[in-house]
């Protein structure tokens, strides 16, 4: 499918605002307003109130990240599948720096299935756990060749039969390569939805089920991107940049991180902080700088 297409602006009048929202200065402008209204302390709310708040957060994130997208470089479903498997226990940046050489040598499932294990391991070594990942890549490539005619299937029940492919990986591939809506519960997504009190569940499948019940199906894929973008750029695990957060008034966890606007702005990452993103080949509407190739210096 190529790149995930950002949703169209709700109103033409907001188009200019959306374009500016990607710039760090826009975040700073939102911060001052958010800080004045941030709730202290958070009060218990009904299910209906939570759903309304959750949907408002999603709308606000859509304003801030109109360019949200999968942060793995890929050109086809097979590349996205392989990159997602490699992304376990490492950064998308490291995967993106590794896959150019990988796909140059093994462009199709048939090629990767026939790879010499030691040679495959050496190429993907930078992503960590390279022996286990190589075993998964060899297995899934052979399965694609033998059971699916060399094509990545477009159904969840088929994808999860592939070695190394679980529900999270399947949803990434379905949502971004086939346009099938899905919630991707990675560590960032799970952390933020619990921080926002959308759910108390820890199990990814239970988190997925509860969040799916809050939002219309058409929003699932883009919601996943927006939440992950926010978790990587502003709402960090150890020290969230509360003073630079556009959804501070809607956040029950406001105050867990730095609330001073100036100090919080220094915690912003990737394009929000003026640094390169995670992709070597980001989509055209990405407002930040591309990441550097492997060996050329990281962010």
Characterization of the model:
- Helix content is 49%, strand content 0%.
- It has helices at residues 15-21, 24-37, 47-64, 77-86, 92-105, 109-113, 117-124, 130-147, 156-159, 167-177, 187-195, 204-212, 220-233, 261-265.
- Helix 4 runs antiparallel to helix 10, helix 7 (117-124) packs across helix 8 (130-147) and helix 11 (187-195) packs across helix 13 (220-233).
Give a quick precis of the structure:
About 50% of the residues lie in helices and about 0% in strands.
Helix content: 40-55%
Instruction: Report mean pLDDT, rounded to a whole number.
Output: 89
Secondary structure category: mainly alpha
What is the 3D shape? globular
Distance between the termini: 28 Å
What key attributes describe this structure?
single chain; 299 residues; mainly alpha; 14 helices; disordered N terminus
Task: Compile the SSE list and pairings.
Elements: H1 15-21, H2 24-37, H3 47-64, H4 77-86, H5 92-105, H6 109-113, H7 117-124, H8 130-147, H9 156-159, H10 167-177, H11 187-195, H12 204-212, H13 220-233, H14 261-265
Helix pairs in contact: 4-10, 7-8, 11-13
């Amino acid at each position: 499918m190529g790149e995930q297409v950002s949703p169209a602006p709700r109103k033409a009048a907001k188009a200019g605002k959306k374009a500016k929202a990607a710039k760090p200065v826009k975040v700073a402008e939102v911060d001052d307003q958010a800080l004045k209204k941030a709730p202290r302390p958070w009060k218990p709310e009904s299910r209906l109130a939570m759903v309304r708040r959750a949907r408002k957060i999603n709308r606000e994130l859509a304003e801030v990240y109109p360019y949200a997208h999968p942060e793995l470089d890929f050109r086809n479903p097979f590349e996205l599948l392989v990159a997602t498997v490699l992304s376990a226990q490492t950064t998308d940046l490291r995967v993106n720096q590794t896959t150019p050489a990988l796909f140059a040598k093994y462009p199709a499932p048939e090629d990767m299935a026939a790879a010499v294990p030691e040679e495959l391991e050496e190429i993907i070594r930078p992503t960590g756990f390279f022996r286990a990942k190589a075993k998964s890549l060899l297995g899934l490539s052979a399965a694609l060749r033998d059971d699916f005619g060399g094509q990545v299937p477009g159904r969840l029940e088929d994808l999860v039969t592939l070695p190394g492919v679980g529900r999270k990986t399947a949803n990434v591939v379905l949502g971004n390569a086939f346009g099938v809506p899905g919630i991707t519960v990675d560590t960032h997504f799970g952390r933020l939805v619990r921080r926002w009190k959308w759910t108390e569940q820890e199990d990814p499948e239970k988190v997925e089920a509860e969040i799916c019940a809050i939002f219309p199906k058409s929003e699932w894929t883009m919601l996943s991107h927006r939440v992950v973008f926010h978790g990587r750029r502003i709402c960090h695990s150890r020290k969230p940049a509360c003073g630079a957060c556009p959804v501070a008034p809607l956040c029950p966890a406001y105050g867990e991180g730095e609330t001073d606007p100036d100090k919080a702005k220094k915690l912003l990452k990737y394009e929000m902080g003026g640094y390169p993103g995670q992709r070597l080949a980001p989509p055209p509407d990405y407002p930040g700088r591309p990441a550097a190739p492997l060996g050329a210096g990281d962010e």
